[in-house]
Amino acid sequence: FPGDRTRWIVTEKIDGSSTTFTMKRHKRKTEFYVCSRNVCFDKPEKADRCYYETNIYLEMAEKYHIEEILQEILNDHNDELEFVTIQGETYGKNVQNRDYGLDGHDFMAFNLILGYKNKEVIRMNSIQMRDYLHWYDIPCVPILDEEFILPATCQELLDYAASDVSRIDGGMREGIVLRTLDGKQSFKAVSNEFLLKYHS
Questions:
Q1: Count of CB atoms situated within 10 Å of the CB of 93
Q2: What is the pTM of this model?
Q3: pLDDT reading at 44 higher than 70
Q4: SS3 state of residue 73
Q5: Residue 149 — pLDDT band, cuts 50, 70, 90?
Q6: For residue 116, what are the β-bridge partners?
């Protein structure tokens, strides 16, 4: 890291289950997909193929009206977009060992991706995503620093990851995610103390 003056946007890493919502345009039709890491719930008969007692991914899609919002975003771009994707974390009761004090589940976005018909793909940075999704009442991961400079050592970065509490509930923070201002590069740093307490 020494000498690297790249500015990074830092967001809180949430201990949840990765959740992806995508809408693709196929000629005059659109198709909506709800996915986790290992399965895509693109057909009704797949809805019960969920690791959890209930399908938390479809629950979040309904809670935040994701299908309608993605359709609106596609419509607003006058046929220029081929797809739009929101990625995030579903978290809460029985999702991971850390339930953030929730009796149910909730969702926070960490990526907003626009794919154009000319094959250009734009991945918004965390600030752009937050400001865009704000209009649709979709929550986004907390932004901790908008102009972060990497410290000299990995240990300092890990110390920073563990240096504060979660913005969600004031409990232990899992870690941080860092993303460049152009949205193209990202990496995460997870608190060792968090891993020992919740995942050892």
A1: 15
A2: 0.91
A3: no
A4: helix
A5: very high
A6: 81
